[in-house]
Amino acid sequence: MAAVLLLTAACTDLTEPELAPRVQEDLLAAGSGGIVGQRIGAGERHTCLLLGDGVIKCWGWGPDGQAPVVKYAATARFVEVGAGNLHSCALRTDGVIECWGSNWTRQAPAIKQATLGTFFTQVSVGRDHNCALRNDGVVECWGYNEEGQAPETRATPVGFAQVSAGRYHTCALRKDGVAECWGSNEYRAAPATRSATVGRYIQIAAGWLHTCALRSDGVVECWGSKYYDQSPETKVAATGSFTRIDAGAHHTCGLRTDGAIECWGDGHNLERHAASGRFVRVSAGPFHNCAIRDDGWVECWGSGRGVLNPPEPPTGVVATAVSPTRIEVTWEDTDTEWSFRVNRQVLRDDGLWDWQYLGTTEKNQPSYTDDAVAPGRTYRYVVRACNPTGCSDFTFADSVTTPTG
Q: Angle at the Cα of 304 (from 302 to 305), degrees rounded to 5?
């Protein structure tokens, strides 16, 4: 549940269990950054993905507007995103945070600016509260605070380096590598301070009733509830060591030096069954997890409430020759895609078809204009819908022949 990103000091550029399918199809993107994932946040019933062009796309359950949605920063651009229960928040390059979704506990203000002339360098989205780290090492929190998990400010003489918001407690990592926690201490998940048994802590992740911290030697230490074995005293990677961690409701996941992911704890929603492959980011939601592979693709596993599935194939694909050198291709929007891939086949003189990829259109743009056709030739167009998990089956249009003049 911890979304971690530290900006530079200048801050100028700145329900039913279901396993997600694995699809290898490549995606092309709009804009300079493409559809390649950069950061990801798995919430309780939705997930948000930050793309390379700074745009955020969310999917899943969204009765309060947290998903499905496409978010563009009001100014600057987004560099980090996190997802909670019914809301999400994202950090911009100018150190300002934008939130959307349910605001019933004031956890999702449209704009959140740091106080005292400072700016935020990291944001962590908890279940119904958030905490953010300022450039001066002070933490600010907002949202649900019945257990004291979201004080307006929290400071320490040495300064904080990272913060993680859980359900009813919050933990932060001090610059000296010591953990400090506040809020509910049920199951001893939130001790006032805790030091690593070996070395120092370099990252911390707060779950619902447990907390885990990554040591400088790549070993994980956990404390709090052990009902699902989510918080072993020490967790050593099966191969290599851990480089980052995140905590869900009753489970924890760690990314290893070889790019593989290990998860432990509750597995009732298959959240413990990590996807295989090489990954660069992992986010543990309460009941599902999502990770970004080294090729920018997203894979999710666990409860289907926040898992993204491949889109349905487009329907009603029609190709119309409007002139000897132009063909218009149209189809029906599927409402489950993020983009469409358009291909064409050209009938050769020997009766065989040549396959050519034409390009990608964005969601809600179910049309494509092909200006690179020749008079008197026969063409057939193929369209498929895509999102970060893969693409649908091909949908073919009937062949069309351009006029000769």
A: 115
Indicate the SS3 state at residue 283: strand
Tens of pLDDT, residue by residue over 143-184, are: 999 999 999 999 999 999 999 999 999 999 999 999 999 999
| 372 Cβ contact partners less than 8 Å away, ≥ 6 residues apart | none
Question: CA dihedral defined by 97, 100, 106, 110, rounded to 10 degrees?
Answer: 50
Query: What are the strands, taking DSSP E only, across 178-333?
Result: 179-183, 193-194, 201-206, 210-215, 220-224, 242-247, 251-256, 261-265, 279-284, 288-293, 298-302, 315-323, 326-332
pLDDT, greater one: 314 or 118: 118
Residue 315 contacts residue 276 (beta carbons within 8 Å): no
What pLDDT is stored for residue 2 in this prediction?
Answer: 44
Whole-number average pLDDT of the chain: 87
Residues 6+ apart with CB under 8 A from 352: none
pLDDT computed for residue 389 by the predictor: 63
CA 273 from centre of chain:
18
C-alpha to C-alpha distance for 170 and 176, rounded to whole angstroms:
18
Instruction: Compute the C-alpha angle 208/210/211, nearest 5°.
Output: 110
Give residue 294's Cα distance to chain centre.
14
Average pLDDT of the segment spanning 352-366: 85
Distance in angstroms (rounded) separating the CA atoms of residues 201 and 352? 63
Q: Which among 300, 254, 268, 312 has a CA at the least distance from the CA of 19?
A: 300
Q: Where are the beta strands (DSSP E) in 294-389?
A: 298-302, 315-323, 326-332, 339-347, 353-362, 367-370, 378-387
The rounded distance, in Å, linking the Cα atoms of 304 and 292 is: 18
